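note to self: dont lose this again. the chain is below, predicted strucutre after it. 531 aa total, dont forget to put it in the shared folder this time
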Amino acid sequence: MSSRREFQWQVPPEFNFGYDAVDVFAADRSRLALLYVREDGTSERHTFWDFKQRSDRFANALAALGVRRGDPVLLMLPRVPEWQVAFIACLKLGALVIPCTATLRAKDIRYRAQHSGARAIVTARANVDEVESVLADCPALTIKVALDAPAGWVDFHAAERSGSRALARVATCVDEPALCFYTSGTTKDPKAVLHSHAYTFAHTYTGRYWLDLRRTDLHWTTSDTGWAKAAYGVLFGPWNHGVPVFMYAGRFDPEREMQLLEEWEVSVFCAPPTEYRLLAKQDLSRWKLPRLRHCVGAGEPLNPEVIQAWKDAYNLVVHDGYGQTESILLVANLPGMTIRPGSMGKPFPGHDVAIIDETGKRIAAGEVGDVAVHGHPPSLFLEYWKNPDETAACRRGEWYVTGDRASADDDGYLWFVGRADDVIISAGYRIGPFEVESALLEHRAVLESAVVAAPDAVRGSIVKAYVVLRPGVDPSGALARELQEHVKAVTAPYKYPRQVEFVASLPKTVSGKIRRVELRERARRDADSAG
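---
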């Protein structure tokens, strides 16, 4: 389409999302930024002016506590407006924002704090005990701010009220580090994906071309805070265009989600395929959505039958897209394109995405190879922070290799095949087998474990654990449930194995490495026979 052919990057030499987006739209003091709804149905409206004032005050409060330009700050808040306030405040200071999901456990917090050298953490009262349990191991983490703070902590709202309204602008260059996401790997600890301020600007194009945002829209991205999807869907994509976002603080329930779409007249909707699958199982004729005009899905491939069910109900096609924590959207079905159900779409404007072989050469249509991005577009991450080996390993000449496998057809549409490594994509979450296996090995009953993806009709894949027990320990359903609860307790709960199978031994290579490929095939066969 013309937008792809004619696209040219127009990234300014200096950019700060807080000053150059939020504060700009705050000039209209009535301009809505956030419509916030709690699980009990109560709601709040926040303008860009509100966020300018609150972020300025909170930035000054953080500075008074000792946060300086370049300092890493862990941001671990649930879906509350204070998440946006703190995020913007840190960007305005030139601090390094490290978004973390609010479900992290002590082990996850310790690793992120130690690896990053975080000076500060902003969190909620519910997370204070987990943080306190690791502070002795994290000597740099001395600034502690919490909502409803206990003794020994700084209260978020008290700090905000104490902060001056006059904030001196920090001029941040586009190539200066702005935020860092921790993302699951295969056999090692999570990788630190370091992004610049150019990344926050590049999401202007996510909002323009993929979300197709207009001044009159209300946009809802259902992702939890802490993930890259929340960053583009609840911050950078819409607010670079001054478009208000909808944020719901309740748990996912398909019927409630449909009610919210209808009640609040959401016009642009972004949800992971897992949610669309569950929504499509409802009687969609019960809800009238005349204002809903554009729908997108990302995180994993979306089933063609789900796309058809949504189209039958609302005459809207869910536009599938493909991106990574390391980038903005890379491949997408953009508005105006002919949709081929099941396809990732075509390369996103500004990105030369191709299927390459092991030598870095483009391969013929129909052949399966590695999804790769040519060069260093401003939307791409700077590096795997403090890990030059991993940074070098993802490069093949001038190509950044995503770690995913796909094919392209004669018309340039890309078709996802799977991960090139063992990372599990479940309901849009990236889960490294190493993290789950390590948690299982901490249990007294476990001798060995191997974790793989098992097919699942709703989540795409689920985590399945094959467990070898210590001598004298008998397998049972009760023990399987105990292991699941153990994993939930020591690492983020979304990583727990939804299936546990006890085995006498694990398949291994002659060098002793676990053959996960064999276990994945076994899990697939078991799923086929059960379904």
